[in-house]
Amino acid sequence: MHDLDPLNPDYVQDVLSKPPFINIPGVINVRDLGNYVSAKEPGQVTKPRYFVRSAELSAITEEGKNKIKELGITKVFDLRSDTEIRKYNTPLPEIDGVEVIHMPVFKTEDYSPEMMAKRYQLYASGKTEAFLELYSQILDHGGPAFGAILRHVKDKPDEGCLFHCTAGKDRTGIIAAIILRLAGVDDEQISHDYALTRIGREPAREMIMARLSKEPLFASNNEAALNMFTCRHETMKAFLGHFDEKYGGAEEYLKRYVGFTEEEISQIKNNILIPRPPRL
Q1: Domain Tyrosine specific protein phosphatases: where (predicted)?
Q2: Are 22 and 33 in contact (CB under 8 A)?
Q3: Do residues 67 and 23 lie in contact, with contact meaning Cβ atoms separated by under 8 Å?
Q4: Rounded to whole angstroms, how far apart are CA atoms 170 and 174?
Q5: C-beta of residue 24 within 8 angstroms of C-beta of residue 55
Q6: Among 42, 46, 43, residue whose Cα is nearest residue 32
Q7: What single DSSP character describes residue 256?
Q8: Where are the beta strands (DSSP E) in the chain?
Q9: Per residue in 218-277, pLDDT tens?
Q10: Which residue ranges make up each domain of the chain?
C-alpha cells in the first residue's frame, strides 16, 4: 500500500472536525497555528486564531467569506504565482472588509519550462533530499512574501491573517515553520503541523490528481503524481535541520533575507505569543 493511497473517509472527517482544523466552506486544508506550546518561553503559547493557514481560496463560498470575518482575519496573503493563477483559472477572491494581498514567492520567470521540468522531477522523486532542494528554492525566493506576512504581525498584533499557496503545503508550510520556530515551538510539533496536510488535502484528492494528469511528467506516472503531495513528518524534521545549517535558523534568515532588525524580530515574537490559559 502506498503511503498516499486514499484515507478512510470517516477518519478524515473526524480529524477535520477537530482543532487545529477550521471549517471554511469552499477551502481545504485550513488550520489554526494557535495554542502550540513554546519550548523557549515557559508558560507561553502561540496566539489562537491569529495565524490561519490553508490551500487556495478561489472556490470559497459566501458562507466561507463570512467565516473568515468571524475569525477576525483582516488580511489574506496569497503566495501563489501569476502563472498558477492563470493556468488553473483560480483568481483571488473579493471578501468585504478583508484585504487580499497577492505576494507570490516565485516570479513568472521562475516558471519557465526548464525550471518547471526540474521542479517536477524533484517532486516526482518523493525523496527527502529532493524536498530539501525545493524548500531551499522557496527560502531563497520567499523573503519579500514572508516579510509581508511578518510585518503584519509586527504592526497589527490584534488582527488575524490567513496565508496560503495552492495546496497549502510547501510555501505555506515553510512560512508556518518559520513562525512556529520564532515562537520557540519544538521541531516535533512543527513537523506534526506540516504532516497534517496529508489529511487536510484529502477532500480535494480527485481535483488535485486531475490537475496533475494534465502535466506531461505525471500523465502516465501515478506514483510520481502521488509523490508530488507527500508531506511526511520526517521531511519537515530534515528540513528544520537543513534550515539551521544552511540559513542559520529563523532569526538569522529574517535578518538576511527580509532585512528585519533584532528589535523587529523581538517585537514579532512578542506578538505571536500569549500566556498559556490555565487548564480547566
Answers
A1: 129-209
A2: no
A3: yes
A4: 6
A5: no
A6: 46
A7: I
A8: 31-32, 44-46, 51-54, 73-78, 99-102, 160-164, 273-275
A9: 777 777 777 777 899 999 999 999 999 999 999 999 999 999 999 999 999 999 999 998
A10: 9-275
Q: How far is CA 247 from CA 52, 75, 240, 253, 256, in A?
A: 25, 28, 10, 6, 9
Which is more confident, 102 or 6? Answer: 102
Please give the class, per CATH, of domain 9-275.
alpha beta
Residues 199, 82: Cα–Cα separation, whole Å: 27
Which residue in the block uniquely carries the three cell numbers 496569497? 78
Q: Kind of pairing, strands 160-164 and 73-78?
A: parallel
174 near 242, Cβ under 8 Å?
no
Q: pLDDT tens digit string along 164-204?
A: 999 999 999 999 999 999 999 999 999 999 999 999 999 99
Q: What percent of the chain shows pLDDT beyond 90?
A: 78
Beta bridge mates, 76: 100, 162
State the Cα–Cα distance between residues 164 and 173, nearest whole angstrom: 9
Q: How many other C-beta atoms are found inside a 10 Å radius of the C-beta of residue 124? A: 20
Residues 6 or more apart whose Cβ sits within 8 Å of residue 104? 78, 79, 80, 81, 82, 145
Cα 107 to Cα 207: distance, rounded to the nearest angstrom: 25
**φ/ψ (deg, to 5) at 278:** -65, 145
The grid coordinates listed for 110 are 521562475
**Contact between 57 and 78 (Cβ < 8 Å):** yes
Mean of all residue pLDDT scores within the chain: 93
